[in-house]
Design brief:
By secondary structure, the chain is of the alpha/beta class. 48% of the residues lie in helices and 14% in strands. Helix 17 crosses helix 21.
Length: 659
């Protein structure tokens, strides 16, 4: 029997065989209708034979052929009324069964009514009532079993033609979303998952859903998953806190249980196969924190009906600021960046998502002062979000003059023009690398912070209503261009190795939308001159991050995917800080935003040194540029860099004398 079964599978699943089930997408409507007519005809003939065997007494007003034709015609009419032939058989559901029941009961009721009309006007019935009941039962059973049989045969051979086993999976949750996911995955073809049960935190006794057991999740989710014979778990609940989810995932990964995430069914794209929507849990899902509750009215007051400029708009942070600002219906949104292709892509996105938005796209380098001034002359700008910056530490360590051109000179250009053209608010996006900088990039951003802060305090001496300069400072952003998470993903997809600069390196992380929400919030609450510091949550050890990402991808670290230590890059720290030793913090109305009270330096001194730094950068003398940065920022101590020698006071003085 087993050999016959295997041979049948081979023949029917053979791609070269005409009976290959994969070649049959679905039965056309006319074919389903013909089959249904045939089944009703068979039902009527069977009914006649049963009645002849039970009783010799039969009504003879119509012949057996005429009776059969009448029964079949009536059923066909109700098939048409309820469109029982219109669905795809392999996706038949309870609704299709109900339509069949209504069609056959409708035909029975009509024939019964015709029977008594005949008795009333002609004096003789056409059918035995018992015969109509028997025909109703047989016809519905045949029609229903036909559909059920097609579903089972289709599923059997769809699985048979796949040369891989299904992933036995447990779904976490028993809400409507979880049940919808289980039902959808059960009928999906080709199949990827076999749902073997559900886990829930609620108390249930002997409960089954979709004929699958439901276990109460208590302490060890890994044991409960294994008890159901599963190798994977699908997260479907949104009731879990990030901390609870993180704990569950850690346990699953420790016991080699694959973890998948399913979005809300309401958000699914109908054009995408269901199994593809259930994806391996991403590290971003674990690093996310509780949603931020923000004040809306203050941002409405600042953004709605105003002209807003976003620099660095094609970048990760800048583009998200554009999306969020666009939601507040500004009078005009100016989108500025020097990266042509990403800027073009953003333009297409904004046109599609915000068709009524008045916006202008400008290709411009923030170091181009003349072009910027022309823009400020032609546009009455109310708010500037300055996100344009060079941010890659090793690259800026090798090209310090470029960091000066963009991060310092570009910021000075925009800040000076903001004062000149009476911009209301100027919000600068900074970085935790500006605190006690160990690299050129961080030092350039700290210089920009110092400049705008001192400029604000200088400008309000003569004009209390001058531009309000506000700085926002935060750490690494998940998914941003060049950040560690996308890099690790690419390395894992390529088969490794995953490269880490140091086993003890730690970083703070924040999602892009979260960071930009806080930027808008800080910009709206700022009174001028503040450096807002964001609560970044708990720091993450990069080695642990890499290990989890490898496991989430279904691999074993240092077995399937190697982890390689490459050594600290030039200018790189083991850990980042959000405040320096001299800085104190003040709370704000938002628990995730604090005000860092840095020492404000004299504007004339800062401006003089910034101009000298820019002049040195124009001469493309790297050591001279870095030396002047160190002179301005005494806490700037190079790490793992060729510029460490400039930290030696003697070397620094020699360098300064040669300038």
């Amino acid at each position: 029997m087993g050999s016959i079964n295997r041979a049948l599978k081979k023949n029917l699943a053979d791609p070269d065989n005409a009976l290959d089930i994969r070649n049959l997408k679905y039965l056309p409507r006319w074919a389903v209708l013909l089959i249904d007519i045939g089944l009703v005809t068979i039902s009527t003939i069977l009914t006649i034979f049963i009645l002849l065997d039970l009783s010799p007494l039969q009504y003879t007003l119509l012949s057996y052929f005429e009776k059969t034709l009448l029964v079949v015609s009536t059923n066909v009419f109700f098939f048409y009324v309820f469109k029982t032939y219109a669905g795809i058989i392999r996706y038949s559901s309870n609704v299709d069964a109900l339509k069949l029941l209504l069609a056959t009961v409708g035909a029975f009721s009509s024939l019964l009514a015709l029977n008594y009309i005949s008795l009333l006007f002609i004096g003789e019935k056409i059918f035995l009532v018992g015969g109509l009941l028997i025909n109703l039962w047989i016809s519905f059973s045949l029609l229903f079993l036909f559909r059920l049989g097609v579903k089972q045969v289709y599923e059997y051979f769809k699985i048979a033609h796949k040369n891989e086993s299904l992933i036995k999976t447990v779904i976490l949750g028993v809400d409507e979303n979880a049940i919808s996911i289980a039902g959808a995955l059960d009928i999906e073809h080709p199949k990827r998952f076999k749902i073997v049960g559900f886990l829930t935190q609620d108390s249930h006794k002997s409960l089954r859903i979709l004929d699958k057991p439901v276990l109460r999740h208590t302490q060890k989710v890994s044991q409960e998953v294994k008890s159901l014979g599963a190798d994977a778990i699908i997260f479907s609940e949104n009731t879990l806190t990030p901390e609870e989810k993180f704990k569950l995932v850690e346990e699953c990964l420790e016991h080699d249980i694959a973890v998948y995430n399913a979005p809300l069914v309401s958000s699914w794209d109908e054009n995408q196969p269901i199994a593809k929507k259930v994806k391996t849990l991403q590290i971003e899902d674990l690093l996310e924190r509780e949603p931020i509750q923000l004040e809306v009215q203050n941002k409405i007051d600042q953004l709605t009906g105003k002209t807003i400029l976003v620099t660095g708009a094609a970048g990760s942070i800048g583009s998200e600021i554009v999306r969020q600002v666009a939601e507040y219906n500004p009078a005009k949104l100016i989108i500025l960046d020097q990266a042509e292709t990403p800027l073009h892509n953003l333009q297409l996105e904004v046109e599609a998502k915000f068709p009524d938005l008045n916006f202008k796209v400008i290709v411009c380098d923030v170091g181009n002062q003349k072009r910027l001034e022309l823009m400020f002359q032609n546009q009455s700008i109310d708010v500037v979000y300055h996100a344009a910056a060079y941010k890659h530490v090793p690259l800026m360590e090798s090209n310090p003059h470029e960091a000066i051109f963009v991060n310092i000179h570009g910021t000075k250009n925009l800040a000076d023009l903001a004062i000149k053209y009476n911009v209301g608010h100027f919000v600068m996006v900074s970085t935790d690398k500006a605190v006690n900088p160990s690299n050129v990039m961080g030092a350039s951003k700290r210089t920009a912070e110092m400049y705008v802060q001192s400029l604000y305090h200088e400008s309000i001496k003569t004009n209390p209503n001058s531009t309000k300069f506000i700085t926002t400072r935060f750490g690494n952003v998940l998914g941003s261009n060049g950040s560690v998470v996308p890099l690790f993903k690419k390395q894992i997809e390529a088969g490794g190795p995953v490269t880490i600069t140091h086993p003890d390196i730690i970083r703070y992380f924040m999602t892009i939308p979260e960071a930009c929400q806080l930027v808008l919030e800080a910009g709206a609450m700022g009174k001028g001159g503040e450096i807002f510091v964001f609560d970044m949550g708990e720091p993450v050890k990069i080695m642990d991050l890499a290990i989890k990402m490898i496991k989430l991808a279904g691999y074993q670290p240092n077995k399937n995917i190697k982890v390689r230590i490459t050594g600290l890059r030039p200018g790189e720290k083991l850990y980042e800080e959000l405040l320096n030793d001299e800085c104190k913090t003040l709370p704000t109305h938002h628990k995730k935003i604090m005000i860092g009270q840095d020492v404000v330096r004299d504007y004339e001194m800062i401006n003089d040194k910034v101009i000298k730094i820019i002049k040195s950068a124009n001469k493309l003398k790297n050591d001279k540029v870095v030396a002047k940065l160190k002179d301005l920022i005494p806490e700037f101590k190079s790490n793992n860099s060729s510029y460490e020698r400039l930290d030696n006071v003697t070397e620094l003085r020699k360098e300064q004398k040669s300038l």
